């Protein structure tokens, strides 16, 4: 409709290698992801073949050490790759973020023997991971989880149910947080559970308003037995490991949110400059021009916020507060921008003929996953004013 094709995001990347990496991602997106995104999402097709291609291309392991098959890339680069993937299809961008989250515990807290034995296959061996923290009665209050792991000789036996698991039922491995001791955060331990373990089963995927191609399911642990060599970190250290992973994971969600918002803005600009009413493009009308300007400003602000948090992480500085701010702002911005994009397209925006309605539905979940935005506000406030009085 418009001859104004969307321009690629201008990125400030630190090295020539990272610039070539983003060019590779854009090539894969244009050929393998974007052309089929709308059709496959509507059909609920999980693109496992895309994740296999990303693994073969080294794109599932970017922020991890090369000695274990990783890409040795800073978070500043990794997150911009996520943004590019999410702009094409959130199922893919969020899936890469979840896989990286699932590898975090072993990479950061496993023994040298554990990392050497298992991390290369997890990072670059075509495997796909999932992260198991939430439960049916334990969401925002993650420290109240009830899934149990009981010691039996040299093994652990896991029993319980996990909920809202992205890649549930299709993942090759699961990082699982289970209770091994007292109530509360000090009684939780992390385990690495193979996807084909006896006693591990998945319920039917949830029927969701968006991200229909990404399976989200409950996992049932019915006496799942794993060796002590699959315990990650010390007994009782699991909740600290989980929080460490979530700080990084929230940056992944922020980057994905900016990608979704950027895709919606590109569609809105293309439509507004091509659609004519009253004898001129609707983009000539000040009401729409101001709306597009506000959308673009929110996206730029969100991108700057998540990149600053990533650079702090890369420099070894505390970044928990900045990660919460980035997750909060970027996902709220994505919801606002995608809603405005539907409005710019008018009636067409409400139809399946244009992608903005899908982007709006997908943006909503980003305000919920990996800590609702109400939880992010609590995290930020605690950094500012200290813990709440009891």
Polypeptide structure, described:
The chain is an alpha+beta fold and 390 residues long. It folds into 3 domains: 16-125, Butyryl-Coa Dehydrogenase, subunit A, domain 1 (Orthogonal Bundle), CATH 1.10.540; 129-239, Butyryl-CoA Dehydrogenase, subunit A, domain 2, CATH 2.40.110.10; 240-385, Butyryl-CoA Dehydrogenase, subunit A, domain 3. Helix content is 51%, strand content 14%. The chain has 11 helices and 10 strands. The chain has a 4-stranded mixed β-sheet. The protein has a 4-stranded antiparallel β-sheet with strand order 2-3-7-6, with no helix packed on it. Helix 4 runs antiparallel to helix 5, helix 7 runs antiparallel to helix 8 (286-314) and helix 8 packs antiparallel against helix 9 (320-345). The mean pLDDT is 95. Residues 15-125 form the Acyl-CoA dehydrogenase/oxidase N-terminal domain.
Uncertain segments? none
Whole-number total of structural domains? 3
The CATH architecture of the largest domain can be named as Up-down Bundle
The biggest sheet, with number of strands, parallel, antiparallel or mixed sense and barrel status, is:
4 strands, mixed
CATH class of the largest domain, please?
A: Mainly Alpha
Proportion of residues in extended strands: 5-15%
Write a short abstract of this structure.
By secondary structure, the chain is an alpha+beta fold. Helices cover 51% and strands 14% of the residues. It is globular and about 80 Å long.
